[in-house]
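tool=predict chain=A
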Amino acid sequence: MDLWKGLTRTRYSIWIFVLIFALALPYYSPSYMVLSATSIYMYITLAVSWTIFCAPTGYVSLATATFFGIGIYVLALLGKVFPLPVVIFFGGVASLLIGVLVGLICLRLSGFYFAVFTFGLSELIRNSVLWWEHNVTGTVGRWIPSGNAGRVYYSMLIVVSIAVIASYLIGRSKYGLALKGIGESEEAAEHIGINVTFHRIGLFAVSCFFMGMAGAAMATKFSYIDPNSAFNPLISFTPVLMSLFGGVGKEYGPIVGAFILTFVSEVLLSRFPYFYTLIYGIIFIVVILFMPKGLVGVLTRRQ
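tool=predict ok
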């Protein structure tokens, strides 16, 4: 018991140190490091949000770009009307509400069908917004109010902190245990009185909430957006790869995966821009074939 308490204190001490380091980063680091850290926070948020729903339930969602893009467009529409914290919250709420609607429609599907449906949903919304702007509003995108690097950084730091804390609390709650039971056997979960549909839709909506907040916070980094950039299909696949690379069996697995692969992607984009997606695809294949439990699983097995 004393050893466990010591390990728990050490873990909390590490998280506090990391938070203090992150808060102070803009004051002593060059601007490019602040921008890179902001991108890391964004992908950690998306990877953790994806894992909140997909890890315990066993579903594979490819709709991350949908809810991330919704957050971006909420800021584009409301950024000049409300303060940034309010708009970020509205971006999360809008994604949550649409997540509930999507959950009611598609969470009766499972396996391959659910993955295809969610990816098709992203493409449907992207092309619908593109059609609307071209034929109704007569535009090809929107100018949005941009913020300075420090403002974007701290906005994204707050969002990622809330997402990580929520993931930790959900994983250790009765709700999280119920979700794990659903993932292992839906029939058994129903027999012991768990409302499978309610739990799945609720968790899916929570994950969408953080994706929308991340989109609204990151939108201030850009001065112009259009449907192709806001609903970029890569945003749907990248968090999946990051989560699998880090390992979904531990809460910190997606964090490790997002941190490493975001850094790797920055290097690939700067040095091998034409082979970026090819190299990412090779990494994805390697992870699936040789690291089914991710990097955290490999390191744990070797201990």
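The beta strands are 142-143, 224-225. Residues 246 and 256 are 5 Å apart (CA to CA).
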